[in-house]
Amino acid sequence: MIPASTVSGAVVFEQLSEGQAAYTYIDEKSAGRMLQAHEFPHLTQEVSALYFGGGSLACVPGADAYATFAQQNAEGGVFMLDPNIRAGFVRDEARFRARLDTMVSGADIFKVSDEDLDWVFPDDDPFEKSRPFVRAGASRCYPDQLQLGRERLSGLR
To answer: Whole-structure pTM over 0.90, yes or no?
Structure first.
């Protein structure tokens, strides 16, 4: 028998409104949330790309483990970050923002949605919101559906 308190689970609910998807996430005791940095494998030269994103970047201790793994392995390949920020997962905003800043500084490609930008910079102009990420170290920043259309920002340091 497995006690109910040890069962892992993650559930996603999607709601469409005027062509835009809104999601509700429930993630309690899932494996991704519980990862520790020492549990990741040693990467070989055969690995040429790393991709990090989603709620896993907000739920500790897993989020800290992903950030550590990204920092340790970002050189020598392509490191893509898509934070897909879900405010409901963020328990410690200062810690989450610091982790995101660290990960952005090592990212080669940073994909960011309107919702991500609105959460990080709630009062700024849509185009201007992407510039700090590029200045922080991301060599490419791809905003999702900005009001200005799809813009590719690079070299804006």
So the answer is: no
